[in-house]
Predict the 3D structure of the following.
Amino acid sequence: MSVSSPCEICATADVEAACDRCGKLVCSRHYDEELGLCIECAADVGEDDRENIPNSEDMPDGVDTYQF
C-alpha cells in the first residue's frame, strides 16, 4: 500500500502499510511484515500470543481489525 502521508510513528518516511491491530499507517521500517503489526503493537504482543494473531484469511468478511 502506498499512501502519501508520513509514518504515524516517525513522521518522516512515506507510509507503506497499515497495522492490522491498531490501524496506524506506518513506514516499512516501523512495520513487521510477518506479524502484520506496527512495531509498537508487535512489542505489546508477547511471544506466546503471537501465534494467536489472526491473518487476513481468518478474518470474516467486512472485518479488518481485531482488538486484543
Observations:
- The chain has a mean pLDDT of 78.
- Residues 39-44 form the longest helix (6 residues).
